[in-house]
Write a structure and sequence with these properties.
Elements (H helix, E strand, L loop, with lengths): L1 H31 L8 H8 L3 H14 L4 H12 L1 H34 L3 H11 L2 H9 L5 H9 L5 H25 L11 H27 L2 H5 L1
Helix pairs in contact: 1-5, 3-5, 4-5, 4-9, 5-8, 5-9, 7-9, 7-10, 9-10
Length: 231
């Protein structure tokens, strides 16, 4: 039995190192791959024709998976496709990227993390396992990392897939429409500030959700954390 456990632990370490390697390659690609001439993008979109929605969602999801910032993609898609379509495409891309990142993190990192969490980390992992949609939205709105990186990280926790996916998409709605609107109307040296309103609402929503989460955590600690009590 000891030999089997050692073999499983070695496998989990190899998988976790592979996950770190994937993240490292994504970060390296962002630094080394040259940016294409954005002036060519509208002509390319015109050539896609009926395949435009599929291409926009697929490319957007791929960029999120390789850790390209979601804000940058949303602004660009707003400029290319307009505020409504641009936001819609980025929301669909966010759903696909969230699922892909979660799957990779769960496959390569969950076993490693589950075998090694100790002390307070056990309570933290239990909190992720109990999370509802609101909890996922709160984490997504916190400035703790990019969309893709958080997706990979969630996969290494005990989070449930359905609340995670729903919360991930809902958390992107305010900023998706706000930044897509900015991309659609921004010109060099001039921005229509009415388009910033949705993004401002997203900021206020983020602050409200963080405050609610903080109060809930303080209440839970005041009455006692059952997970902490067991460990």
């Amino acid at each position: 039995m000891t030999a089997v456990r050692d073999l499983l632990r070695q496998r989990s370490v190899r998988r976790f190192l592979l996950l770190l390697g994937v993240l490292g390659l994504c970060a390296l690609a962002l630094l080394l791959v040259p940016a294409r001439d954005l002036a060519l993008a509208p002509r390319l979109v015109d050539r896609l024709g009926p395949a435009t929605p599929l291409a926009a969602v697929g490319v957007g999801a791929a960029l999120l998976v390789v850790l390209v910032p979601r804000t940058l993609i949303t602004v660009a898609w707003g400029a290319l496709f307009g505020p409504v379509q641009g936001a819609g495409y980025t929301l669909a891309a966010a759903l696909l990227a969230a699922a892909a990142g979660f799957a990779v993190g769960r496959t390569l990192g969950r076993e490693f993390v589950a075998d090694r969490v100790r002390g307070r980390l056990i309570s933290l992992d239990g909190w992720f396992s109990r999370q509802n949609v609101l909890g996922v939205i709160t984490v997504r709105l916190l400035p703790v990392g990019g969309f893709g990186l958080v997706s990979y990280g969630y996969g290494t926790t005990g989070a449930r897939l359905a609340p995670y996916l729903v919360g991930s998409v809902l958390a992107t709605v305010p900023s998706a429409f706000g930044y897509a609107a900015i991309g659609a109307v921004a010109t060099p040296g001039r921005i229509n500030w009415l388009a910033v309103a949705p993004a401002s609402l997203g900021l206020f929503a983020s602050l409200a959700l963080v405050a609610r989460w903080w109060r809930a955590e303080r209440t839970r600690r005041a009455v006692g954390d059952p997970d902490a009590a067991r460990h």
